Automatic annotation (TrEMBL):
The lineage of its organism: Bacteria, Bacillati, Actinomycetota, Actinomycetes, Kitasatosporales. Residues 151-192 are annotated as: Disordered. It comes from Streptomyces prasinosporus. This is Regulatory protein.
Amino acid sequence: MTERPAQRTPNRQLAALIAEAGFSNAGLARRVDQLGLEHGLDLRYDKTSVTRWLRGQQPRGTTPALIAEVFTRRLGRRLTAQDLGLDACAPVYAGLEFAATPEEAVDIVSGLWRKDSGSHAELRKIAFTSAGLVVPSRDWLIGRADEKVARSEPPARVPAQGRPALRPAGPPESAVRRRGAAERGPGQRVTGGDVAALRSVGELFRTLDDAYGGGHARQALVRYLEHECEPMLRGTYGEQTGRRLFAAAAELTRLAGWTSYDIAAHGLAQRYFVQALRLAQAAGDRAYGAYVLVTMSRQAVYLGHGREAVQLARVAQQGAGSSAPPAVQALLHAAEARGHGVLGEVRACTAALARAERALEGVRTGDEVPHWARRFDEAQLADEFGHCHRDLQQFRAAAQHAERSLQLRAPGQARSRLLCRVVLATARLGLGELDQACQLAAEAAGQAAEMRSVRAVEYVRDFERRLEPYRDAAPVRTYRDKVAAHG
């Protein structure tokens, strides 16, 4: 890495922290390199690099934030680049912070919305980091509930002449960015109707995501959050309305993360999930916070981080408690099973699936079930069984459960049906039923071509990798011809 020309002033702040942490120069360099690898960076610093920093040279790019994070982990307190005598730069974990207050949470998440709705394409290239899961899940589990979220109308300023002052206008860029500024000015009162509108919009975007994939309307959702939801969060509201507002914002933010995950913007999705978790805490909704953790667990499973997926699911179970509705309990245990499945832990996976099944059997007509948990039904449980048995290479069981899920699943849940169809194709392939496997996968590939879902495409590609040993067989040639016809 090239460095800026040396400055004359030695960096005594950095030297003092190195001594406090007990690092050698080589040890600090090694830790910075290791942290860089978590973010997909090949840095290759050494003890000479640290000597230059101590003499006053400034490392470039995100390195000051990486160095600060190394010391934060070692010393157990949050440190910034400035605390180390280095130039200020964006925190390496920007967006992964679990805010101390609801006000700070609004600042962090609205910053994400604004950057994501603009031309910040690099935001969608941020890498997922498993290390970024630890602190938010811990803080959610042990953190105290927010005592107050209500926001009152700021007092009007009265000039000396006794005339009420006009409210000062916001910066021009902000006024342009918020197309609804005339309808919803700063401090405007939020009503129950406003919150109901947020929930209705959420249902609309969820339907679009299910049917057409996360890439179809993701940007429209993010812009809606920026232009409509943020002004509400910065408006005025009482305690009850405020809790409901934060709950609706948490759901929309989780959905923004889910759609980002579906297009493989994994680092961005992770940040949305963390902020949804913090908004759920402000809402006082423990069960929904557990659901956000399950969503994070599913992303970890998809990326192959089975151990982290299991831990997130268990934190969700502990946080939700034994009083959570049976449907929620089923969802939490199924998430744990998926993590064990990826790890190849047969007994633990089977036990978690059995707990999920027993919990779902406990659901009774008329039970109060959160609206977001109602979709965890027999079709979804069969889907979870199918995925787990596929990962454990128990192909006969995987095929049985995948077929059952497809029989029960509603047609509108097109992406879920597509993914399940690929699981069934993989199971048929594992059972040696090449013809049937290729027919099922060809159907799925055709559907994936009509969607904007990287996840759907990756499922099909995974199946194709498994086809490689049979590449010269007639059914495989027919499959490739069909896929080519889909473009």
